[in-house]
Amino acid sequence: DTAVSQTPKYLVTQMGNDKSIKCEQNLGHDTMYWYKQDSKKFLKIMFSYNNKELIINETVPNRFSPKSPDKAHLNLHINSLELGDSAVYFCASSQGEGEAFFGQGTRLTVV
Amino acid sequence: GESVGLHLPTLSVQEGDNSIINCAYSNSASDYFIWYKQESGKGPQFIIDIRSNMDKRQGQRVTVLLNKTVKHLSLQIAATQPGDSAVYFCAESWTGRRALTFGSGTRLQVQP
Predict the structure, then answer these.
(1) Residues 6 or more apart from B84 whose CB is under 8 A from it?
(2) Residue contact B101–A45, C-beta within 8 A
């Protein structure tokens, strides 16, 4: 059983398009996250949700809109994609402030 | 294959040697620290964590040392194996912050 699963694994799209990445966790955790990993491998928090409520938004452009329909899901929608959005996006979950479990990542390439 | 990570500091060790990966953190308020291992094409995987009321914690073949005075964290891997080759990240957090702040990562290469 995959604990944190995100789809798709790869996403190639043109500039200006809108795309979504889905994430689901089956661990019963109350907190979910989106992290972005750039080309230098640097991992940075984008959003944090606790019980479906947004608690962290780290200066992410408003073209990025997370949505949490329930505690087990946190999807990421990106409007008007730009070249600089190319990165690997990781979903993660944790119970409270404990260790975070990460998904396998979605490699987004904007051309 | 990936072209990422070319600027990562790299630690190269011989199989069977011990490895020490270091990390400096900047936030004096941080009270939770964690090490992750990331293999190529995969998400970060938890290795070990430590809270600020401890200065050492041991797991299976791994030890984390915390020096709050100089804001320094290290990960020691005993008897390093080829399967330990990966990028290692330290991360920090503090009470009330529901997110991790990651360090820049170190690539560990294990030579057979």
Answers:
(1) B19, B37, B77, B108, B110
(2) yes
Question: How do residues A33-45 score in pLDDT, each as one tens digit?
Answer: 999 999 999 999 9
Give the strand pairing for B86-93 and B106-111.
Answer: antiparallel
How far apart are alpha carbons B9 and B4 in whole angstroms? 13
Q: What is the pLDDT of residues B49-59, one digit of tens each?
A: 999 999 999 99
Q: Which residue type, as a one-letter code, is found at position A9?
A: K
Q: Looking at chain A, which residue has its C-alpha nearest residue B96?
A: A97
The answer to whether A33 faces chain B, any CB pair under 8 Å, is: yes
Question: Per residue in A71-80, pLDDT tens?
Answer: 999 999 999 9
Give the B window 52-91 contacts with A, CB below 8 Å. 87, 89, 91
Q: How far apart are the first and last CA of chain A?
A: 34
Query: Coil, strand, or helix at residue B94?
Result: coil
